[in-house]
Amino acid sequence: MPREGTGPDFIEALARGLGVIAAFEPGRPTMSLTEVATATGLARPTARRILLTLEELGYVRSGERGYALTPRVLELGVAYVRSMGLWDVARPHMERLVARTNESCSIAQLDGSDIVYVARVAVPKIVSLAVQIGTRFPALQTSLGKVQLAALPADELDRVLAEPSRSGLMPRWQPDRAERDAELREVRARGWALTDEQLTRGIRSVAAPLRDGSGRVIAGINVNCHAAETSVERLLEHHLPLLLQTAGDISADFARLEAAPHVTVTAS
């Protein structure tokens, strides 16, 4: 039966059109006009007008055996999938990681020589630096920044780090070029980065890269802790394996999101 709206803004014609699309259930890919009208509870003339409209828009095709959906209907579902960003995909993974480590977890992306936090699941702990979405820090002194800088070609790395930081923070670690390059080579070789009070006192973290379907590093994800509460050994032996698993799971989910079909059908 057609659904009746519950408010003055309810568009009955739209609801009926979606109802016709939903009537093509598994097992009946093709239906006659009578079958569509019966399945939806619509009068035959109404069902016919809706089918003709959907056909003109490219969502339905007519044939000798009746009406059938076209691949363009996939666009309706893919629109939802593709509207989800990396952060929507990542959040449940981050929440599980926080539950297993009892430490805060963040995702950040490069913006010039800084990182900018774009997703965070925090635990209530007193730390020396407040972090929220949009917070920026110098990339080189953070684990989140190191895993992204290590993925850059040498010329691009120099260009990025030549940009002045807009964070307003003066980090503790100020490496020369040789020390910087050695640090990033190590990060590149092992696939993760550690920062032990290099940004500021009391902050210790480990990070892993997040990748898209082509393997390109698009962000970093970390577990950060207070140096007085969590040792480097605990961070590397317990938290790091969980972090690497989480980073892999998020990257795989994001690759699947990117691989969602792009359907482009021109209405005839």
What does this protein structure show overall?
This protein has helices at residues 12-22, 33-40, 44-57, 74-83, 86-101, 143-149, 154-162, 177-190, 232-258, and strands at 30-31, 60-63, 66-69, 104-111, 114-121, 136-138, 193-196, 203-211, 217-226. The strands form 2 sheets. Strands 6-5-4-9-8-7 form a 6-stranded antiparallel β-sheet. Helices cover 43% and strands 19% of the residues. It has 9 helices and 9 strands. Strand 2 and strand 3 form a beta hairpin. The chain folds into 2 domains: 12-69, Winged helix-like DNA-binding domain superfamily/Winged helix DNA-binding domain (Arc Repressor Mutant, subunit A); 82-258, Beta-Lactamase, CATH 3.30.450. With 268 residues, it is α+β, with helices and mostly antiparallel strands. Helix 5 (86-101) runs antiparallel to helix 9 (232-258). The radius of gyration is 26 Å and the shape is elongated. Mean pLDDT is 87; it is low at 263-268.
Strand-helix topology:
Elements: H1 12-22, E1 30-31, H2 33-40, H3 44-57, E2 60-63, E3 66-69, H4 74-83, H5 86-101, E4 104-111, E5 114-121, E6 136-138, H6 143-149, H7 154-162, H8 177-190, E7 193-196, E8 203-211, E9 217-226, H9 232-258
Antiparallel strand pairs: 1-3, 2-3, 4-5, 4-9, 5-6, 7-8, 8-9
CATH superfamily of the largest domain: GAF domain
Q: Which fold name fills CATH's third level, the topology of the largest domain?
A: Beta-Lactamase
Instruction: Note the gap between the termini.
Output: 30 Å
Structural class by SSE content: alpha+beta
At CATH level 2, the architecture of the largest domain is 2-Layer Sandwich
From the alpha carbons, calculate the radius of gyration and give it in angstroms. Answer: 26 Å
- The total count of helices amounts to 9
How many structural units, i.e. domains?
2
Q: How do the strands line up in the largest sheet?
A: 6-5-4-9-8-7
Low-confidence parts: 263-268
Strand content: 15-25%
What is the strand tally?
9
